[in-house]
Amino acid sequence: MKKRVLVIVLAILGFITFCSSASVAAGYPDRNIQMILPYVPGAPGDITGRMLIEELEKNLKGAKIIPNNKPGAGTVLGAEVAVRSKKDGYTLFYGGASPFVYAPIANPEVVHYDAAKDVEPLGFHYFFPMAVGVRADAAWRNFTEFVDYAKKNPGKIRVSSIGVGSHTHFAIEMLQSITGIKLTHVPFEGGESVVTAVLGGHVEATLDGYGKLKPHVEAGRMRLLIMDPKKPDQPQIPTLRELGYKGELPASWFALWAPAGIPDEVRKVLLPAVEKAVKATKPKIDATGSICEYKTPAETRKLRDEEYKQASEIAVKTGLRK
Q1: What are the counts of helices (DSSP H) followed by strands (DSSP E) for the chain?
Q2: Core-most of 29, 77, 206, 262, by most CB within 10 Å?
Q3: How far apart are CA 66 and CA 52, in angstroms?
């Protein structure tokens, strides 16, 4: 008798929970949504994230999306805030490979989540080529001269990145492995600080996204020595493979994410809205020098998994990971 009563009580509680969850999901969104941006205000990821917010709001019943900047630890800090939030669709995360591919490999002690299980992609936004940039008055006119100097002066060239364990940090390690040079990595919190460090003479070079460096190149303040992958409208800037190296730098990318386990009804609302928003931002994104290309959640997850596998193998080879 007691067992039967217990079963009935549990069934009722389960039904109430289901109805409550279904009711909330059916009305989604009925309040403001928070989007975590793990970048300092004004950084490329912050700017493009806000572009996406502007378009996404148009497709979510007029709900407001509030940007919340949470920079730090190579974007891991913001990712952790998002992952630990409620799985109700009211906290989203805008970011790329750094917190879900490279930080878990290069800096696992600061990552307190499972990047493969604790977060789910909602859609891919865009990617941009990576480039090595120096001041316009730097002694190196091309990448060959840069490498020759670095080999003769190990560690003397300081290179800025957006943080330890970030995508750009990993790209620097890959660059050293591919070319056989030794650089000194100087991490910053992110944003334009990596560029101002070069312009101010605090470091000799930076390895970052083409879109971030492009305005400074056009203004005559910086010069690009190499870029991966190739951009057809910049034929004068070589890739590593064009210079004879057996390897390439990983392109950086951005996508929209949610804590894993959001309700299906919420997902049904978000996914088409994200696809429309991404496609609507393409003209603006492409104008920055990046490439906007929508990918489904499944395609985005596959990209993350394949990049994680490749990066893990490289990390073991270079000593970043046992």
Answers
A1: 11, 11
A2: 206
A3: 12
